[in-house]
Amino acid sequence: MIAFNKEQIYIVTGASSGIGRATALLLNNLGASVIAIARNKQRLESLKTDCKNPNNIYIEIKDLCENINDLPNYVKSLKEKYGKFFGMVYCAGVSELKPIAITEYEDMERDFNINYYAPIFMTKGLIDKRNNVGYGTSIVAISSIAAICSDKGHSIYSGAKAALCASMKVIANESVKNKIRVNCILPSIIDTPMTNASEEEYLRSQLHLYPFGFGNPNDVAHMAIFLLSNKSAFISGQNYILDSGGVR
Asked: Helix 155-175 to helix 105-112 angle, to the nearest 10 degrees?
């Protein structure tokens, strides 16, 4: 059985909804202390209310794209406020269907900022030995199956998620000397508010690829918790696909 204690402090970004919320709740329910980061204060407060251990969850209202270059310093400020971290699950992200014919640079910049640059610079802050506990530290980035297999309209999103997977594997190699583990999870379609904002016709067209139906945020959260825990102490630099067993 996986269990944590309140001295084990983890960052969860995108914690106000979807996969991030599910991960923060599960981590807290299993005993860990969680720094829940998102932009929406009301939804973060709702998360705290729903936690099993509300005294062990701390909400931080933050736009991660506001000053990406300063994110390592932001992580440092959180360490000084709460203590050294045992890890992070980076869940914040956006997904937008847009054919390349109508794609503008601003679209790419917006997508890469939150889906690639922000997780890389948050990770940069986490792997700084002054901010983590060393051995036992684990970082999990939520990528997407779009990184390796995608559909029309996902050229930007797929590019950002593929870049994330590639860079996190390199960071895993660079961090092994400090006994820090780094992994990615690549979910296919998960039933989240972000997904539900997609075009209904697109979702219907994809359903036949999912023998067990679209995923639930908890499906991803349980995998993230496993990768944070000492049960996965032998695992780093990997990309885990969660796709309902679909044939692609």
From this structure: 40
